[in-house]
C-alpha cells in the first residue's frame, strides 16, 4: 500500500477472518526478546502473541545486527481494554473538536487506537516494539513508543518528515528486519507491527485474515 489506509477504513472491516486457532504464547519465555514492563498487567496478557507472530518476531531479532535487540512493549490486548482505549481517546478528540461528526471522530481516533471490532492487538496479531542497545538503552526513534499524533505533531507517523537522521536510520533498521520476517507496519505508528490480522491481509493481498479477536483463556 502506498496510501495511508486507516484502521477505520471500510476495506479493513470487509476482509473476512478464518481464524487458524493458533495459541497465544508468552513472549517472556523467549530469552532472545527483551520485554519492557511499561504495559505490565496483573494477568500478563500484554506479553502474549499468536504463535505465528512470535515466530516471525524471533526471526526479525536474528536479522538485526550485533548489539541491537528488539524491545517488546505490548502484544495481546483483551477486547474490553481495547474498547476502553478507543473510547477514551475518542472522548478527548470530541472535546477538542466539538464540531466533528461521529465519523470524523472515529477516523481520527483510528490513527492512534484501532476500532475495537477489528483491532489487531485483540487478535494477538500485533506488537508494539522498539529497539534497544546491548546495554539496555532504547535507541532514538524520533518519538517515544505510543506518542499520539497530537503529542508528537505527527512525528509518530513512520515516514514523517523532519525526523532526525539517526532516528530515521533506526526506524529503517527496525522496519527492514520486521518486514523481512513477514510483518507489516501501521504507518501512523512506527512501533506497531502485525501479522495475520485484517490490516496485514489488506497490505499483502491475502484473501482473509488468519487471526480474529479472542478472549484469552
Give the count of helical stretches: 7
- The percent range for helix content is 25-40%
User: What separation lies between the terminal Cα atoms?
Assistant: 35 Å
Oligomeric state of shown chains: single chain
What value does the Rg take, in angstroms? 16 Å
Could you spell the SSE succession in H and E letters?
A: HEEEHEHHEHHEEH
What would a concise description of this structure say?
It is built from seven helices and seven strands; from the N terminus they run H-E-E-E-H-E-H-H-E-H-H-E-E-H. The strands form two sheets. It has a five-stranded mixed β-sheet, sandwiched between helices. The protein has a two-stranded antiparallel ribbon with strand order 1-3. Helix content is 32%, strand content 13%.
For this entry, give a set of tags.
two-stranded antiparallel sheet; metalloprotease; 7 strands; 217 residues; alpha+beta
Question: Could you characterize what this model shows?
Answer:
By secondary structure, the chain is α+β, with helices and mostly antiparallel strands. The protein is 32% helix and 13% strand. It has a five-stranded mixed sheet, with helices on both faces. The radius of gyration is 16 Å and the shape is globular. The protein starts with 9 loop residues before the first helix and ends in a 13-residue tail after the last helix. 39% of the residues are buried. The mean pLDDT is 94. Keywords: Cell wall biogenesis/degradation, Dipeptidase, Hydrolase, Metal-binding, Metalloprotease, Protease, Zinc. Zn(2+) binds at residues 121, 128, 192. Belongs to the peptidase M15D family. It catalyses: D-alanyl-D-alanine + H2O = 2 D-alanine.
Amino acid at each position: 500500500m502506498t496510501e495511508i489506509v486507516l484502521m477505520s477504513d471500510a476495506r479493513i472491516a470487509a476482509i473476512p477472518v478464518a481464524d487458524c486457532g493458533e495459541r497465544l504464547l508468552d513472549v517472556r519465555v523467549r530469552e532472545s526478546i527483551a520485554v519492557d514492563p511499561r504495559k505490565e498487567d496483573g494477568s500478563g496478557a500484554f506479553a502474549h502473541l499468536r504463535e505465528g507472530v512470535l515466530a516471525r518476531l524471533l526471526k526479525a531479532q536474528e536479522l538485526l545486527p550485533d548489539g541491537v535487540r528488539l524491545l517488546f512493549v505490548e502484544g495481546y490486548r483483551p477486547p474490553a481494554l481495547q474498547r476502553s482505549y478507543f473510547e477514551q481517546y475518542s472522548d478527548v478528540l470530541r472535546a477538542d473538536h466539538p464540531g466533528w461528526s461521529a465519523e470524523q471522530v472515529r477516523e481520527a481516533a483510528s490513527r492512534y487506537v484501532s476500532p475495537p471490532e477489528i483491532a489487531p492487538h485483540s487478535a494477538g496479531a500485533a506488537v508494539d516494539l522498539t529497539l534497544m542497545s546491548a546495554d539496555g538503552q532504547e535507541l532514538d526513534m524520533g518519538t517515544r513508543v505510543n506518542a499520539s499524533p497530537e503529542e508528537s505533531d505527527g512525528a509518530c507517523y513512520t515516514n514523517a518528515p523532519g525526523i532526525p537522521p539517526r532516528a530515521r536510520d533506526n526506524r529503517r533498521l527496525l522496519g527492514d528486519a520486521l518486514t523481512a520476517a513477514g510483518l507489516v507496519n501501521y504507518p501512523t505508528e512506527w512501533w506497531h507491527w502485525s501479522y495475520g490480522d485484517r490490516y496485514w491481509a489488506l497490505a499483502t493481498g491475502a484473501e482473509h485474515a488468519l487471526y480474529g479477536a479472542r478472549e484469552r483463556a
